[in-house]
Amino acid sequence: MRILSVFGTRPEAIKMAPLVRVLNDSPQVESQVVVTAQHRDMLDCVLGVFGIVPDFDLDIMSTGQDLAQITTKALNGLMAVFAEAKPDLVLVHGDTTTTMAASLAAFYAKIPLGHVEAGLRTHDKYAPFPEEINRRVTGLIADLHFAPTADARGNLLAEGVSSDSIFVTGNTAIDAIAGFVKLDYAFKCADLARIMQNHGGSKIITMTAHRRENHGKPLEDICKAVLRIATENKGLQVVYPVHPSPVVLENARKILSHEPNIHLINPLDIDDMHNLMARSYLVLTDSGGLQEEAPHHNVPVVVLRNVTERPEGVDAGCLVLAGIEETSVYNTVSDLLTNHAKYEKMANSPNPFGDGHASQRILDGILRYFGGETMDDAKLQALQAEKLFDLLWLKAKNADKTVEGLDSMIMRAKISMTQKSIIWVEKSIAEIYPQ
Fold first, then answer.
1. Could you tell me the CATH number of the domain that includes residue 61?
2. What tens digit of pLDDT does each residue of 225-260 get?
3. Please, which residues have CB within 8 angstroms of residue 84's CB and are 6 or more apart in sequence?
4. How far apart are CA 162 and CA 366, in angstroms?
5. How many CA atoms lie within 13 A of 184 on its CB side?
6. Same domain (yes/no): 286, 141
7. pTM to 2 decimals?
8. What stretches of 119-265 adopt beta strand conformation (E)?
9. What's the CA gap between 62 and 74, in Å, rounded?
10. Are 19 and 50 contained in the same domain?
11. Catalytic residue annotation
């Protein structure tokens, strides 16, 4: 069975990389990768980290590109690739313009389509823009829907998608994190290494803000709020890896570049980013992926949007919506900096987005669809137990984050484990944390 995975941006590559690895390791699958390079440099960085060499590279990025140009270039290029590769299944991820174009191309070529991270919705077509419509179009075309959560599955069912075509898998973003965070990690970005060397004992806020719907006044307001927070908290260090979009760069430099405890740096590769987040006190972001990833490190997330397609995180308590107005962002962040009880509750909330085995569940769903052999539940549960032990060991060794988040980690792991595995893990915990 030939499976062609399609992606074009840094976030897609991060989330598809663990799935590509699982597909490559399956004797039942001939795995190929095509990238559109909708974001060239940022994509290449992730490909290098994960050792992915695309079979096809459309290299469509151009200076000043707009959505129509991305769509038409990707659509035309992918039609040619599909005709040459003749895949049995096309896999796309999430909600990018590459994803939408690949879905249309698969539909035109009458090739079955699998949608990873399916079912996320805000029910507002302009928030996020253009992602909400991209994923709805993809959802209409997809034959297999790999929903990260039960809520995402519910969204698909409400839209009339057959339950037989939906698989609740968790999010591959959590799969991708494994092995990146290390206690003795040496940052590769020189600016970040300097910041951590000079201010490693300070409270660090990691910030990202770049989404199209926040361009203009919303982004200005967000930056003004962060400036106020940094000015009033001189011991705090704000690290902002700035997206290369000219609109984002201009706003960040104009408002934030003159405050000594705000550090504007270039975008980070995945291992630098995760090691920064794991050492952060808060994450401020309008990114979708960071809403899933930061809670894995027990770091509260302030979402710089009015709505999120990941309400499970808000319900679980690890995300808080701050909106996009200066006052609301300022008040939300200030509250978490001063209200210790609220902060601790968020930091110790369970992450509802996955357990690190979403990619294997996606492969199993594909094999079921095509009538192949799947991994049995016992083996998957054993992998989950092993993964939990690794996380607990790392947590025990980390002097900054000791036993405080342990209960939420155990709760997370027990969701889909057998009683035998739970007993084994609890015995391991007792050995790590003797009474």
1. 3.40.50.2000
2. 999 999 999 999 999 999 988 999 999 999 999 999
3. none
4. 16
5. 0
6. no
7. 0.76
8. 144-147, 166-168, 204-208, 237-241, 262-265
9. 12
10. yes
11. 95, 117, 131, 210, 212, 243
